[in-house]
Each structure stands twice: as C-alpha cells, then as structure tokens.
Design brief:
Aminopeptidase; three-stranded antiparallel beta sheet; 9 helices; 16 strands
C-alpha cells in the first residue's frame, strides 16, 4: 500500500483503526486518567462512524503502516483538544505524524476552532513531530498523584461545593491568577466536572475543578497566592467530600506558574508522577462571509486602492512623448522601451 494524504476515517477503515489503538498515546491526560486508556480507546472507536461530529478522526497511510489521530471539539467552542495518536509514535516517524497533525489543525480550523492543544511529555518522540507541525509550548506542568487510601487531615466546612451564583467570582479568580496566554489555551473546567470553593473574608481565594471517573480523580486548582499556607488543608478538606478518593488515585495539575504548590502538597501524600508540556497551535479559522470592501470606498475617496490581480496581466501604453512606458496592472514598473 502506497503513501496517502491524511483524510477523515470512514467505517471501512475500522479494522486499521482497531489495530492502531491497541498501542495509543493519550494527549488529553485528564480524560485518560479518569476513564482509563481503554475507556479512551473505546470512546474513539465509537465515534469513528461520526467522525465529522464531536470527535473527528483522521487517518494517514504510509506503506504498510496506518497513523490515526483524533481531536475533540464542541460546536461553538474556540478550542479543540487532541485526544490521542495511534499507534504510539516512535523514533524515526516524526515526519509522518507531523503531516497528520497539520491536517488535523486544518480540520479543526474548518470547524471554527481557533487553536488545537495537546499534552505531551517533552522527552517523548512525539514531541519532535509536534514541533515540526508548528505547535508551541505554552506551559510546562507537573502532575502529582495521591495513591488510594484514607484521607488524613482536613476538616469539613473549610470548603463547600460550588453553586451557580459563584460563576462570576470563579471567572474573576481565574482571570487574576492564570497567565493570559494560558487562559487562551485552556479555559476553566467544563460542565462535566464539579468544583469546590474556599472563601476567606467573603472572597473566593481558591477553586478546585474536580473531574471523576472509574479510574481516577483529576483536580485542577486555582489559588490566590495569599492562601498558600492553607493549600494543603484545602485540598484534603475537598477530598473529604469525595468518597472515592479512598479507592482510586487522585491526580493534581501544577502548572509552571504554580510551582509553589509542589512543596505544599508533598506534605500531604501527593508526589510528582509525570512531567508534561501543554502544546498549542493556532488554526486557520473559517471565514463565514467576505467583507464588501467597495462599500468603504466613499468614506475615503482619495485613498490609494490596493491592486487586484483578478485576471491575466496586460500591458498598457501610458505615453507617446519620446518614450513608451509600460506598466503592469499591479502598479510595478516593468520596463522602459524607446
């Protein structure tokens, strides 16, 4: 089988996809840690017949190999999230993966996404493919893990579940504590997660976005620096409200700008588990309609109009006074002839 261009997966490609996903690389670690790798792969296979809806899946064939990638995008959202590559990229095939990643970026742009993001370990062979495809590192992160077991410490009442009226205050905390560049790449956790609030002096000083699944619990914390001394107790208090924290691992994201969290959490049974980078590429955004620039002309009657190359290039005689000057339609002087 020869080399092909990346294209959307069809039901006829299911056998190749099933073979590939047995050894896949998750790029949305939060989902993989809560659902488990098999759950992520099952979700991919179930969405293949609907590849043009919420989870577009693309395929590239090269020789006897198949390269499969999938991203998740909800209609109306500006961010698309890569979910996995399959089979897991190895040394030496970065060029093929970069072609597939570029094609998925274009596809995400057609759907209206402004950027495509992925979580990749910097020492993984896939990292080179992402850089070749034009992805940039927006943040580095450490994911800490707490093994299943009884929650020791913390106290009920220190935190409370989030309510609908907390939305504005949570958004304000997010805007004031997360670097602006990172805000563009990863918004607040979506509707599939719950959250816990820590208040001090009537103000929200901390918010924990919590996502639960059969395989684990993921926490994305947002703290005002002034509550540093209470962080460990706040985390443990939130775990008291999550009974399954005694039965499954708990993972907590610490971005580069939150490096101070590591020391506090290592005191309460959280240990560094893996290091990753958040990689982002801006896409080609779909244009809904072209602006009619002719409508603006009367506002500036004397402005210079840009050249428009809408047909074959012609030569026009401008003067006969001693010399003939010829000009191209685009306004650049081409030559002079006597």
């Amino acid at each position: 089988m020869g080399r092909s261009d990346p294209r959307p997966v069809t039901p006829l490609d299911l056998p190749a996809v099933k073979r590939a996903v047995t050894h896949s690389l998750p790029l949305d670690l939060s989902t993989a840690l809560t659902r488990g790798l098999h759950g992520l792969e099952d979700a991919m296979l179930s969405s293949v017949p609907l590849a043009d809806l919420g989870s577009p899946t693309m395929l590239l064939r090269n020789g006897n190999g198949s390269y499969v990638g999938q991203f998740r995008h909800r209609v109306g959202e500006t961010i698309a999230q890569l979910t996995l590559l399959a089979p897991e990229p190895q040394e030496g095939n970065a060029r093929e993966w970069s072609r597939l990643l570029e094609a998925m970026s274009v596809e995400a742009g057609k759907r209206g996404a402004h950027l495509l993001s992925a979580e990749v370990a910097e020492d993984h062979p896939a990292f080179r493919a992402f850089r070749m495809a034009g992805f940039a590192v927006y943040s580095r992160q450490v994911i800490l893990r707490r093994l299943p077991g009884p929650v020791r410490g913390g106290r009920l009442g220190l935190v409370r579940p989030e309510m609908s009226h907390d939305t504005i205050a949570i958004s304000t905390l997010f805007a004031n504590t997360v670097p602006r560049l990172l805000q563009q790449a990863e918004p607040l956790p979506g509707p599939d997660c719950c959250g816990f609030i820590y208040e001090r002096d009537g103000q929200i000083g901390g918010y924990l976005g919590v996502t639960e699944g059969k395989s684990g619990i993921v926490i994305k914390p947002y703290f005002h620096p002034e509550v540093y001394e209470q962080v460990a107790e706040i985390i443990l208090s939130a775990l008291l409200y999550i009974p399954r924290a005694e039965d499954v691992p708990v993972y907590l994201y610490a971005r580069a700008y939150q490096d101070w969290l590591r020391g506090a959490l290592e005191q309460v049974e959280f240990e560094p588990w893996t290091h990753q980078t958040l990689m982002v590429k801006y896409t080609v955004v779909r244009v809904e309609r072209a602006e009619n620039l002719a409508l603006a002309a009367p506002l500036e009657p004397h402005r210079l109009r840009p050249p428009v190359a809408d047909g074959p290039i012609h030569w026009h005689r401008i003067s006969r006074e001693g010399r003939l000057s010829f000009w191209r339609r685009n306004g650049r002087r081409a030559s002079k002839r006597s």
